[in-house]
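User: Fold this; tokens only.

Assistant: Input:
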Amino acid sequence: MFSLVWGTFATTLGWVVAADFRGAAHRFHAFSHAATPFVGSGAHVMGVGFFRLVAGLFALIGPIVLVTGLLELWRGETETFSLPPVGGWFVLVQAVILGAALWSFWRRSGFLRRQWDVGSGPRRAAVAGVTALTVAFTLLLALGSGTWMLAAWLLGGLCGIALLLSDPADSATDV
């Protein structure tokens, strides 16, 4: 199941960013800089070319992993999996990290808040999807439900890709 989810996500994100479809590489670069906590407006460490190179690797490896996952599914070798039970401290630390991340992304200057404020229906749906599926992923991780956790990861990633492609290429620097 992991091969299917990872292959789908890596292929989609890899080709979109590597091809710079609708300025996705520039927007991904801006999003990654905006999403990094405690970073000022200093110089970027990695440029757009680096993101496109890494995305190209994902675009080449993703279909191989996806086909492997499809072959496993075809042969009946896939099965649902669950994670080992976690302790209360792990759940508490996980909740604190999730809360800090959501606060950072949704505060007035956070990138999800800015995307929500300037967005229309589809963009707001993508922002809500990313937020809800991040919470769902964290809850499912705490509950030990591996299969559903991977589904939340895939859907949240696809919402993120939709958000990445929601603007025309000329507004990539507005993020």
